[in-house]
Amino acid sequence: MSIEFRLPELGENIAEAEVAELLVKEGDRIEAEQSVMELETEKAVLELPCPHAGVVKKIHFSEGDSVSVGSVILTIDEEAAAPSGDESETKQDETAAAEKEQAEPEPAAAKTESAPAPKEAAPVAAASHTPTVQPAMEATAPDHRPPPPAGPATRRFARKLGVDLHEINGTGPGGRIVQEDVEGYVKSRLQNSAATGGLRTAPPLPDFSQFGPIERKRLSKLNRTAADQLSTSWQVIPHVTQHDLANITELEKVRKQFMSTSGKNGPKITMTAIALKACVQILTEMPHVNSSLDMESGELILKQYYHIGVAVDTDHGLVVPVIQNADRKSIMEIADELAQLAEKARERKLVLAEMQGATFTITNLGSIGGTAFTPIVNYPEVAILGLSRAQPQPALVDGKLEERMMMPMSLSYDHRVINGADAAKFVVRLSALLAQPFGLLANV
């Protein structure tokens, strides 16, 4: 008997994934719960196990294809997986089964296989038409509108952006509205608001091949999602960036001394881990920097947990794993967890739970270079800290010219929530903590 293996739910707000790698081929015999392919979602690569044992009869997608939740991805021949035994017994079983099917179940089987199709198709068709028919009903009875087809997370996301889900046509299964639909709707509204001074739609690209050879390279699912997220953040949040320098001369001495005595197998204390711990201390002092803005309700959501995202550059794109409950962890614990998450990110083994729930983000370009930059806030957060390469600079200390190691810091923030004075206080406080390592360690 052939069984269709459909793509199961991968997580909240995940409507589709991209086939990164096929782990089986047609004709392969597989066991139950064997991984059959790797799927790339918005921020992670996941191995997909198949609950059915048998022989892969047909693979319906190729590497690089996008697969929607509920789509048939494999056809499995389960009969081929039956354990081999005495041939006469197998033939008898097959004959008995055939006789049983010919006696009476054949019509019933036809009903059970064909009848559900129209029953399932009807609700899907109805759901797919709902978003286009509903607006006419809303005009006459706005208070009696049925709830739009969307999950709780998508509803929360729409509320944060002040979007009416009834105005959106869903692209998910059965017309379901997913987060990407909300983001696309917001971008479309922003791009089409030229008449009121808003953004204009980007003009079409020219034919670059007329100037010379070109090559087109398809963006991965991860890169496309990152591009959409950055576009949404830049268009929704009024960005301002506050720059400052932190004197980390003494901190670097203490850090290097510790590293030299901890041995090669000891924890690697990085500037990112130290800055992360310092930021958590400031976030407890300035709770509105650890918040999100709900424009629909006119409320500021103050989060009483401190999950810090850290941008990690990989060969496959930028990912942001999250240090959960950083306020409860020491610098050494944070450094060790950062190293583990960064390694998993490079090996594409991060799971979605390790990249969700961030309340504040840090991105460190110090190992690459640069004197300053303007990081984009990771919506729906309200601030992000960028660190650049520390450089020795001359400074007057008690009337004497001395060399000091100065690290550039760039705090980008949502000006609707954080004003310039508070942003300046944040970086000044951070600079003071980094300049006095004992004071920082005393609060670990």
- Please give the CATH class of the largest domain: Alpha Beta
- Runs in which pLDDT lies below 50 for 5 or more consecutive residues are 84-143, 194-200
Q: Write the element-wise H/E pattern from the N-terminal end onward.
A: EEEEEEEEHHHHHHEHHEEEEEEHEEEEHH
The assigned structural class equals alpha+beta
Number of DSSP helical runs: 11
Q: What oligomeric arrangement do these chains adopt?
A: single chain
Q: What's the CATH H-level superfamily name of the largest domain?
A: Chloramphenicol acetyltransferase-like domain
Give the integer mean of the pLDDT values.
80
Helix content: 25-40%
Number of domains as seen in the coordinates: 3
Q: What is the radius of gyration?
A: 28 Å
Q: In one word, what is the shape? A: globular
Biased composition (Low complexity): 105-127
Domain Peripheral subunit-binding (PSBD): 149-186
Protein name: Dihydrolipoamide acetyltransferase component of pyruvate dehydrogenase complex
GO molecular function, one term: dihydrolipoyllysine-residue acetyltransferase activity
